[in-house]
Amino acid sequence: MNRILRRLIFLLLTFSLLGAFAVGAVCMGLKEKSGIAIAGKSTEGHILAEIIAQLLEHDLGMKVVRKYGLDGTQILFHALETKEIDLYVEYTGTAAATILKKRATFEELKETFLEKYNMVWLDPLGFQNRYGLMMDPEVAAKWGIETLSDLAAVSLQISFDQEFYGREEADILRKGYHIPFEGLKLMDHTLLYVALKRGGTDVINGYTTDGFCKGLKILDDDQNLLPSYEAVPLTREDVLDKHPALVATLRKLKGAISQKEMQSLNYLVEKKGKTVYDVAHHFLKRNHFI
């Protein structure tokens, strides 16, 4: 009788252990197949994050958590580092200045971020969001201005916002391109576009993918003196280990978004009131990504 009882206890323990292993395996499987958390900076970052999210959902059937309440380079970088998020689009010049505190090439960024933070820069999306100088196209045509070097040869009314005036780019324009700053006006950034539209100034600074600069003439950095701000998805090494197919899927977006395209996407959200989801979805459909 004791022998039968011991055998029953043994069988019960065996089934219990097998059940525990099965539950553990299922939990591990669910964890392995769980999705990723994506974030983005401001309107542009949210649009790019949504494009990536919808592509991953379509191609990989991946569950994507959108964390659009986060903003700013330091906040997003910390969130990526602490695994609160798994991916966001960063700009090379911003990462170099804010995280590394120095100028760095894309190759230097990739090497340093991998060694120091176990983070991986994926393929560039195809555009830069950096400061530039812009004009009304008709005024630019009248004076024959295409580049920053052309601007140095004429005397026009230039207006900057105060933040830009204190940046490295303004110093490069003055010392590298020898653009005259005599009579320079400083004003709030939002007023720059109004002043340009109303003829109160000839040249303003702005972000090259800003929806508000849609239709303006952005002067070419013909000597390549200004810092590079390539838009590039940034993730961690462990995310790619867990989701190896992610690299090939996001490679579809390599070089797929031009400066003019990004301007238009921002314009649709900021000026036309379209939702981020719809703008991203239409972009993916129009370009046959989904």
User: How many strands?
Assistant: 10
Given the structure, what is the number of helices?
14
Nearest-angstrom radius of gyration?
Answer: 25 Å
Q: What name does CATH use for the topology of the largest domain?
A: D-Maltodextrin-Binding Protein, domain 2
What is the helical fraction, as a range of percent?
Answer: 40-55%
Name of the level-1 CATH class of the largest domain? Alpha Beta
Number of domains: 2
Poorly predicted runs are 14-33
State the fourth-level CATH superfamily of the largest domain: Periplasmic binding protein-like II
Shape-level CATH architecture of the largest domain: 3-Layer(aba) Sandwich
Structural class: alpha/beta
Widest sheet: strand order? Answer: 7-6-8-5-9
Mean pLDDT: 90
> Helix and strand string, N-terminal first?
HEHEHEHHEEHHEHHEHEEEHHHH
> What summary fits the major beta sheet?
5 strands, mixed
Strand composition percent: 5-15%
C-alpha end-to-end distance: 67 Å
Based on CA inertia axes, which overall geometry fits? globular
InterPro entries: ABC_Gly_betaine_transp_sub-bd (IPR007210)
Pfam families: OpuAC
Organism: Candidatus Neptunichlamydia vexilliferae
Protein name: Carnitine transport binding protein OpuCC
Question: What descriptive keywords fit this protein?
Answer:
D-Maltodextrin-Binding Protein, domain 2, alpha/beta, five-stranded mixed beta sheet, globular
Describe the model:
This is Carnitine transport binding protein OpuCC. Residues 42-285 form the ABC-type glycine betaine transport system substrate-binding domain. Helices cover 51% and strands 13% of the residues. It is of the alpha/beta class and 290 residues long. The chain has 14 helices and ten strands. It has helices spanning 2-33, 42-60, 73-81, 92-100, 106-117, 137-143, 148-151, 162-165, 168-175, 189-197, 237-242, 245-250, 259-270, 276-286; strands at 36-38, 64-66, 87-91, 119-121, 131-135, 158-160, 185-186, 203-207, 217-218, 231-236. Helix 2 crosses helix 14 (276-286). It folds into two domains: 31-128 and 231-286, 3-Layer(aba) Sandwich (D-Maltodextrin-Binding Protein, domain 2); 131-218, Osmoprotection protein (prox), domain 2 (D-Maltodextrin-Binding Protein, domain 2), CATH 3.40.190. The longest helix is centred in the N-terminal third of the chain and has 32 residues, at 2-33. It is globular and about 60 Å long. It has a five-stranded mixed β-sheet. Strands 3-10-4 form a three-stranded antiparallel β-sheet. A two-stranded parallel sheet has the order 1-2.
